[in-house]
Amino acid sequence: MNKIKLGISGISGKMGQNVFEIASKDDAFEIVAGFHNSDADFRGVKCYSDVKDFLSNIDVCIDFSSKDNLIKLLHEAILFNSVAIVSGTTGLSEQDHTELKNYGKVAKIFWASNFSIGVSILKNILGKLLPIINNYDFDIELLEKHHKFKKDAPSGTAVSLLQQIAAFKNKPLEEVVHYNSVENPVREDGKVGVAFQRGGGVIGEHELSFFGTFEELSIKHTAYDRKVFANGAITAAKWLLQQNDGYFSMKDII
Ligand code: NAD
Description:
Blueprint: E1 4-9, H1 14-24, E2 29-35, H2 51-55, E3 60-63, H3 67-79, E4 84-87, H4 94-103, E5 108-111, H5 117-133, E6 139-146, H6 156-169, H7 173-176, E7 177-179, E8 192-198, E9 204-211, E10 216-223, H8 227-241, E11 246-248
Parallel strand pairs: 1-2, 1-3, 3-4, 4-5, 5-11, 6-8, 7-8
Antiparallel strand pairs: 6-9, 9-10
Helix pairs in contact: 1-8, 3-4, 5-6
The structure holds nicotinamide-adenine-dinucleotide.
The site of nicotinamide-adenine-dinucleotide has 24 residues, from helix 1 and helix 3.
């Protein structure tokens, strides 16, 4: 059986290294190309300074890099060879998401703000919880924690949870979210308070709390190892190659 030719974008980063480690032990893959902030090869994988060269000989690209790099990759791929792309890069604007979806009209693309099974289950539970809790007087707060090097806030996962709540309330995101801060301490009724912490090596934690007058209910997910995300991206890559062109996410496989 022919191996899947894999290219890893962001190969030297925290996530890229985890994807490399898992894929290099998986017989289904041959890691043929890397892309990062340098053209130095990474652990024996040829890395390219030009995106076109990186894309030229791969079946699928797994990308955990930066917003700018992902968009550059998409622009080249759309002009060049429409390679399948699996990306977990966060901090994207609405326009960036539109570009991802447009790519799905001509190629296979899978994007997820969080590749863990636990967060997919949390979203599923949230979908069932919202119509119930909405009948009562509960305030919702979201707290997310990540390592001190994280560049975006709130996290992509936090944004997707907030979008889910906004969609349930049938309101635009801006009308639903209240960013907790000293300048903005009082939350309007019905809004979701959002806070984040950055420190040390925290891989990722998301906690949704529902506060009643005399009680609190919470659902929380903690990632203990980046391998949870890397495994999810690798599973998604294998799955994506079996699909027709389109834009996919975790809800399509879980
Ligand atoms: P990191 O800073 O450790 O690594 C980033 C990698 O991308 C590096 O190899 C760097 O060289 C490369 N890179 C960045 N900008 C580039 C550019 N302009 N050109 C070429 N290469 C570039 O970051 P990380 O912790 O590995 O996270 C990467 C992304 O993945 C972030 O957006 C993060 O939020 C996201 N992430 C997503 C999930 C998920 O499950 N979806 C999980 C963890 C992290």
